[in-house]
Amino acid sequence: MKTEQNFPAYFVQIPFGFSYLLSSDEERFLKHLLEFEWMEKMGGNLISTRVVYSQRMNIPLFTFDRCGKSLCRLGLATKSDNPSGMIKYNLNRPVFERLTYIVSVTKNPWRLMEFFKLHITTLGKSIPDLTDEDIATLRR
Questions:
Q1: Has residue 7 been placed in a domain?
Q2: Is residue 6, in this structure, part of any structural domain at all?
């Protein structure tokens, strides 16, 4: 990861509803994935080690591993390894947009928490596994 390159400031917005699904560490990881996506478009090299990634995100290594695994399971991120021990995480933009849509369907936080608890935690679905019929239940 080229940390010596200077990039202009980049700001992202994460909908409040994401916090009903993701931990604060997972939200931080996701924000960095958004930043990495932008930095890559600006010519940055984002292949690095787990240690450098976790330091960049200012989270412990075990938290970094847990967050990466969780976001990959949800479909929000993909991970690629290479033989030299370097890794790269990428944001799955269509899944991010789908989650943004899902949290915008209702303004009722209780309904959203129940929805995520049922479909993600209990049934073990990922974001791409959520059907339009599942999402329609948020409107009731």
A1: no
A2: no
